[in-house]
Amino acid sequence: MNPILSSRARLGTYLLGWVPIVALLTFVAMSQDWRLAEALALAVPMGAGGAFMFLSSWYLCRALPLRSTRVGSHWTAWILAAVIMAALWAGAGLALAWCLAKATPLTGLYHRAHAALPTLVGIGAVLYLATLTLHYLLDAVDLGKQSEAREAEFRILAQDAELRALRAQLNPHFLFNSLNSISALTTIDPPKARTMCILLSDFLRGSLRLGEKRLVSLSEEVDLLKAYLSIEQIRFGSRLQVQWELDPATLGEEIPALLLQPLVENAIKHGIAGLTEGGVVRVASRREGNVLELRVENPVDPDTPVVHGLGMGQRQVRSRLQMRFGDRMRFEAGTTDGVHRVRMVFPCEVKP
């Protein structure tokens, strides 16, 4: 569809742009000793006709896109089309002048228009090329918007694919450990094994409920995290303690789904599991203005070699935040004084 006709705003702006062109035609005619009535009688309908006729330059724009590798050869077609359309436009104006000279007191209009015919053809060619240029510009703008829309769609698809991959990675690993623990508990502590089965069922139910969402409230993420930790606390007993430092004002904020779980799982797997006496996993949140900060901390064995770079879980979390927020987010992870800290800072999601 012609980009000028694709919206009322564009069409209105285009037609409004012809008002100064009509004024220019009138001025040119009067500069050649035309009377005002004669100039207006020809300039106004020719302006309206040109606005309609030169819309046909859209078809030339589509036939000869600038993306083509043979742009240099387009000039011949552009100039030829401009001359032909300008001649038709000037011819239509001359025919109109003849009709007006016969039907109105403007008897000298035809002779004046005939004398100005070369000037009208030149003006028409310039106006056609200007309209053609406008079509190329609007086409480039529309292609840019389409490209941005496709990029945004691909970004969402990439986020969905990464989230599915994250779930595929987390759930089997977690289920494997949980089922092993249940199997071991069935012989030594059947009631605890039964409790663990119920907790595992609640966790999987909650995980499926949030499975189709890209964004969840922090409170929903925390509820799922608590169900996960309640199972892990049966596995680790008193070795695993959890400290929550959540600002109530942040619980309604939306965050990417499964943002905290891989970090907490890493805290247990690479921190608590390696300490004989266990330790405390600390989860904190706070908000400053329109920025949300989340932190996960856990003790680590000081004799464990320091691992440079991020693990897979942390890389995935940082990558998802990067795709969603770009340079507006910060992700920091490191170990200091026997405590591993992960800090995430990103803008609060704008609720519709």
Write the layout of secondary structure elements.
Layout: H1 8-31, H2 36-53, H3 57-63, H4 74-103, H5 109-115, H6 117-188, H7 190-209, E1 215-217, H8 218-236, E2 240-246, E3 254-256, H9 261-270, E4 279-288, E5 291-299, H10 312-325, E6 330-336, E7 339-347
Parallel strand pairs: 2-4
Antiparallel strand pairs: 1-3, 4-5, 5-7, 6-7
Helix pairs in contact: 1-2, 2-4, 3-6, 4-5, 4-6, 6-7, 6-10, 7-8
Transmembrane segments: 12-30, 39-60, 75-101, 113-138
Keywords: Kinase, Membrane, Transferase, Transmembrane, Transmembrane helix
InterPro entries: Bact_2-comp_sensor_kinase, HATPase_C_sf, Sig_transdc_His_kin_internal
Protein architecture, described:
This protein is α+β, with helices and mostly antiparallel strands. It has 2 domains: about 10-150, no CATH class; about 190-345, Histidine kinase-like ATPase, C-terminal domain (Heat Shock Protein 90, 2-Layer Sandwich). Helices cover about 65% and strands about 15% of the residues. It contains 10 helices and 7 strands. The strands form 2 sheets. Strands 2-4-5-7-6 form a 5-stranded mixed β-sheet, with helices on one face. Strands 1-3 form a two-stranded antiparallel sheet. A hairpin with a 2-residue loop joins β6 (about 330-335) and β7 (about 340-345). α6 runs antiparallel to α10. The longest helix has about 70 residues, at about 115-190. The radius of gyration is 36 Å and the shape is rod-shaped. The two termini are about 30 Å apart. The mean pLDDT is about 85.
